[in-house]
Design goal:
CATH class of the largest domain in chain A: Alpha Beta
Number of domains of chain B: 4
Number of helices of chain A: 11
Oligomer: heterodimer
Helix content of chain A: 10-25%
Radius of gyration of chain A: 26 Å
Distance between the termini of chain B: 69 Å
Shape of chain A: globular
Number of helices of chain B: 24
Strand content of chain B: 15-25%
Structural class of chain B: alpha+beta
Number of domains of chain A: 3
CATH architecture of the largest domain in chain A: 3-Layer(aba) Sandwich
Distance between the termini of chain A: 44 Å
Strand order of the largest sheet of chain A: 9-6-10-11-12-13-16-17
């Protein structure tokens, strides 16, 4: 049902009084009760017609405004002059870190009057929320996009990748990208494929608790991200978030290996099928041996960061489930699809014909597993073998989301079937591996 | 003249203003999650701890980019908090790892009920707010609270607000590394907060108002009982100072004395202000004051504190306080500025204490050393000083805090929050928070108080305390005194439940009001006898003549000591199996026979002396009335 937009008596009263949220008003109810306070916007789940008033004791209350209620404007909201906040002058002796704002919880602050969460307008605001970062690096900041991460599309990935490349070319040692956590893994994977040779770390960072809360993880995460960007010898795209529920240790995850595994916990991000690239504890960065080293710009012929930004968006993901309908596959699949199969990489046998039809049309079908942990293997059971015969390509130990981004990227680079297949079978930026270590399962 | 029965002061003349905030835990589920409510025994915390998490809190900036003074005070400490998640009592919500669930409906109903009992005006929609608290007592860094009603009245004092809010974590201790340990069991237990206006007339009146609010809360029948389930905060000011909030007055009876001692303190602080002005001390003078390193003068001191600091390569810093001589010490049992200094130093620098000139020489610091310090600081007669022996940074922070407090002596008594101590004095806790600390909790939907809901609440309104007393006297024929106690101690729901099944009102009252407290005093765990079902079984056995009412205490004790043996087991363990009437007659006949000469001599007057001998054998096994009836008969036969 669409939201009701009926004008209520409350709205009429407010209009007549010429009051806007924040103004001091006086409400006289028909029984003579008087309430005075500041007019507040209503909660989206408030009953229609409820007037929300902020009393002088700080509490908000909801009032009905029956026929006969009087509402007067006492005083307009006093103009609040927010002092202009200037970032400290960059310390040129420190390594330069570029912050590229994209939105999300980490980059939002609360309007204490309304409780509404607003995006930080400038990446500088973000850095200023955590002033300690100016002691770690010479901060440059810029807002690239401003959106909830669920709204982010491949166009934005391209925009961000371009800004990352430019930042390095302009002398940044590392780049920090505050990002909404919902699709941070997708963006990280996209950047990893688009920018395979990096002169320094590209650190995506988010927050699971908004920065208006004293318990927010935003400050600790951002500080760690800046420290890693400023000091770590890492030539790849990583995600840095809390490693535990405690405010003690952060994990550095490979961008193509990381997944948000919890809706709300601080330690929601996990490296899957692959150990984290390192940790940060007590302000100290500890890197594992399996990191991708940096490729200095001096080694590039044109002195530029190589970028391969093209993406083919005619790629989909299909979750296999017991009732999966063959026609659904035919409807959804265009140039390629990622099947998120059951177990070792299966779909119901009744879908085999549909899959055959897709591959016959020239579509690429890549199998991953909804188990997330482990490798697909279509040689073990008859269904698997039939899927191979139907032309399905194994996604090996790749995350479904990574496989999805990879297929989009590969098809953006080449349409040549042999090239596409060769790329899909090749580990390009650490997204797949022939070995899986015992210790990688659920820690 | 002050009325002695109303307290020690002339309250009106002092410009006494006092209001109360009562916080009462509700006996429902948690407010914003579906965990088990209530707190576990401190001894059980270790074995019931399911997980621990270590966190820090970071003050947030308000919209003006200014930090709240209370928040700033906490932030200066940069503390690490360790939370102990208690089995069944804590989930992701308490751990601040999941948004709050929607509020507990029962808790809101109880709050609405209380509002109706005090004649308050209920709001049409409850909007939940976040109140910033960053001392670690809330994992989120704020407490969720919603205003339910405005107005109302008790004992002639207006009620300002009635709110429903979540209780905070329980503090265990601060370990050697300065980590503050909290348990998560209490976090989220619903609390009703009732705040009165500041028109309480005197110290005694404060107690009466608190008692009445407590009684109305218990009348709802849904509040928790026991230590720490109700907490009283007292707001006190007199004409010469600003409002001081005293937190955590546990015992109702101590309220008048806490209020009186706070007035003493405020008067003392006013006296200090006047004296400083007379001595010509002003803010400009204190602004020039700076701590001086007196390590050289004191490094050979025998003082353990100084020696300890020397061992840790620390320093001794001295802060000169012009004009403060004689004003820091105060009297031994009266208010002392030194205590305020120590609290500031502890709060902002984490030091155990500081030395001040009014208490020296002492603690191993000799007169010559005091003189040397005074020389080093170039002090005049009226000047005092404070010493801190710590690492350089900590000592400086401690003396900065002391100086900050010293400057406050020149102005009105500061607005602050203080903690009530067991001796009824108070200690500085933090500056009084500003109003900017509340903003909407957008994760929780507002709760509409519909007409239907209010009609239901009003139709089920519980008896007021005085109505309950009247009913108990009428219905159960107990004395008014007993009825008042049953109601006053919140035992009414239990009393009614048990009596609905077994008609022993006097024995039940005795059990609840006398026997169980006595057994507790004997260190017997009375928990096994605290539920209605067991009480019904016990009194049922009494009613069925399984034992005599004289044996009630012994049977109750035996039951509490080994509840697994059941009531029957307790009766035999107490040796209280009742004997039937023929056995009573046999025993009495035998005793009367054995004293036949005495009986013949005294006649009916022998009843009294023989009763004692008979009861020695039959106490607890036979009803007293039966015994005396049979004894009279047997004596009658032979006299």
């Amino acid at each position: 049902m669409a939201e009701t937009t009926t004008t209520t008596l409350k709205d009429e009263l407010i209009d007549q009084a010429g009051a806007t949220p924040g103004d001091r008003i006086r409400v006289v109810l028909p029984d003579g009760t008087v309430h005075e306070g500041r007019l507040m916007p209503t909660h989206s789940f408030s009953r229609p017609g409820t007037l929300v008033l902020k009393l002088d004791n700080g509490y908000n209350i909801g009032l009905n405004t029956p026929e006969g209620t009087k509402l007067d404007l006492v005083a307009p909201e006093p103009a609040v002059s927010v002092p202009e906040r200037k970032a400290p002058k960059g310390d040129k002796t420190l390594p330069t870190v570029q912050i590229l704002g994209t939105g999300g919880t980490i980059a939002s602050y609360v309007d204490y009057r309304t409780g509404a969460v607003h995006p930080a307008k400038r990446a500088e605001d973000l850095a200023l929320m955590v002033p300690e970062v100016f002691d770690i690096a010479n901060i440059r900041s810029k807002v690239v996009v401003e959106m909830f991460s669920e709204d982010m599309q491949p166009t934005e990935w391209q925009q961000i990748a371009e800004e990352v490349a430019k930042a390095f070319e302009a002398g940044a040692r590392g780049v920090v990208i505050p990002h909404g956590t919902d699709t941070m893994g997708y963006t990280a994977a996209a950047l990893a494929f688009m920018l395979p040779q990096l002169p320094g770390p590209v650190v995506l960072v988010g927050a699971q608790r908004s920065s208006d809360r004293p318990s927010s993880d935003a400050a600790m995460n951002l500080k760690a991200a800046v420290r890693i960007a400023a000091t770590a010898h890492l030539g790849e795209v990583v995600v840095v978030m809390h490693d535990e529920s405690d405010d003690t240790r952060l994990a550095i995850h490979r961008g193509v290996r990381v997944r948000k595994m919890h809706t709300s916990r601080r330690d929601a991000f996990r490296s899957i099928n692959h150990p984290p690239l390192g940790y940060l504890e007590d302000d100290e960065v500890l890197l594992a041996a399996h990191i991708r080293p940096t490729t200095p710009l001096s080694e590039q012929k044109d002195g530029k960061v190589p970028r391969f930004l093209a993406m083919d968006e005619e790629v989909s993901m299909i979750q296999s489930y017991p009732g999966l309908w063959p026609d659904h596959i035919l409807d959804v699949v265009k140039k390629g699809t990622i099947l998120v199969g059951t177990g070792l990489g299966h779909v119901a046998r009744r879908c085999l014909d549909a899959i055959r039809e897709c591959t016959a049309r020239g579509a690429y079908v890549v199998m991953t597993s909804q188990c997330l942990y482990g490798r697909t293997n279509m040689h073990v059971y008859a269904t698997g073998r039939d899927l191979i015969h139907a032309g399905v390509i194994s996604g090996e130990d790749m995350l479904p989301e990574t496989a999805y981004v990879k297929l989009m990227w590969v098809l953006g680079q080449t349409q040549d079937p042999d090239e596409v297949r060769r790329n899909l079978h090749t580990n390009l930026v650490g997204e797949m591996d022939e070995r899986t270590e015992m210790t990688t399962y659920l820690e | 003249m002050a009325d002695e029965t109303r307290g020690r002061h002339d309250y009106a003349a002092l410009g006494f203003k006092c209001g109360l905030e009562i916080h009462q835990q509700l006996d429902t589920g948690k407010l914003f999650c579906r965990c088990q409510s209530g707190v576990v025994d401190v001894d059980e915390v270790e074995s019931l701890t399911e997980f621990t998490i270590e966190r820090r809190l970071r003050p947030t900036e308000s919209e003006l980019g200014e930090m709240d003074p209370a928040a700033a005070a906490e932030a200066r400490r940069g503390l690490l908090f360790r939370y102990h998640g208690i089995e069944d009592h804590s989930c992701l919500v308490e751990a601040d790892e999941e948004p709050p669930h929607q509020p507990d409906g029962d808790a809101i109903d109880i709050t609405l009920t209380l509002a109706a009992l005090t004649g308050a005006r209920v709001v049409d929609e409850i909007e939940f707010m976040r109140k910033i608290v960053i001392d670690g007592s809330n994992t989120s860094g704020f407490q969720r609270t919603g205003l339910v009603a405005l107005g109302g009245e008790v004992e002639g004092v207006g009620i300002l607000t009635t709110a429903i809010e979540e209780d905070s974590c329980r503090k265990l201790d601060t370990d050697e590394e300065g980590v503050v340990n909290y348990t998560l069991d209490r976090l989220g237990v619903p609390l009703i907060e009732v705040a009165t206006d500041p028109t309480i007339r005197d110290a005694q009146h404060a107690k009466e108002v608190a008692a009445r609010i407590g009684a109305l809360l218990r009348a709802t029948g849904r509040v928790r009982r026991g230590l720490g389930t109700i907490r009283q905060d007292l707001n006190v000011s007199i004409a010469c100072g600003d409002r001081v909030e005293i937190k955590g007055v546990q015992d109702l009876r101590s309220i008048p004395r806490v209020a009186d001692k706070e007035i003493d303190r405020q008067l003392h602080m006013d006296h200090i202000k006047t004296t400083l002005h007379e001595r010509g001390i002003d803010a400009a003078r204190l602004d020039k004051v700076a701590a001086v390193d007196v390590t050289l003068q004191l490094k050979a001191s025998k003082s353990k504190v100084v020696q300890g600091a020397m061992k840790r390569k620390g320093v001794v810093l001295a802060l000169p306080l012009p004009g403060f001589d004689g004003l820091i010490g105060g009297t031994a049992d009266g208010p002392r500025l030194g205590k305020e200094f120590a609290a500031y130093a502890k709060k902002y620098a984490g030091v155990r204490g500081v030395f001040h000139s009014d208490e020296l020489p002492a603690y191993g610091i000799e007169q010559e050393e005091v003189d040397a310090v005074r020389d080093a600081l170039r002090l005049d007669t009226h000047d005092g000083f404070v010493l801190a022996a710590e690492s350089a940074t900590v000592a400086r922070a401690a003396l900065d805090a002391v100086l900050e407090r010293a400057k406050l002596c020149l102005v009105r008594l500061p607005r602050e929050v203080r903690n009530a101590l067991p001796d009824e004095t108070t200690v500085f806790l933090r500056p009084l928070p500003g109003a900017a600390r509340m903003y909407p909790e957008t994760d929780v939907r507002p709760v509409a108080v519909t007409d239907e809901r209010m009609a239901r609440i009003l139709s089920m309104l519980p008896e007021r305390p005085e109505e309950s007393v009247g009913r108990l006297v009428q219905q159960h024929k107990v004395s008014t005194e007993v009825a008042v106690q049953i109601v006053g101690e919140g035992l009414l729901p239990l009393y009614d439940t048990v009596l609905a099944q077994v008609g022993r009102p006097n024995e039940l009252a005795r059990l609840l009001l006398q026997t169980l407290p006595e057994l507790s005093a004997e260190d017997v765990d009375t928990a096994p006898l605290s539920d209605g079902v067991t009480l019904v079984t016990l009194l049922g056995a009494l009613d069925a003549g399984r034992f005599a009412k004289e044996a009630l205490t012994d049977v109750a004790r035996a039951y509490c000591q080994s509840p697994d043996a059941g009531v029957e087991g307790a009766i035999s363990a107490a040796g209280a199996e009742a004997v039937d009437e023929s056995e009573v007659v046999d025993v009495i006949a035998r005793i009367v026979e054995g004293h036949s000469d005495f009986v013949k001599e005294r006649g009916k007057a022998a009843v009294g002396p023989l009763m004692g001998i008979v009861m020695k054998e039959l106490r607890g096994k036979a009803d007293g009335a039966l015994v005396s009836k049979v004894l009279a008969e047997e004596i009658g036969k032979r006299a």
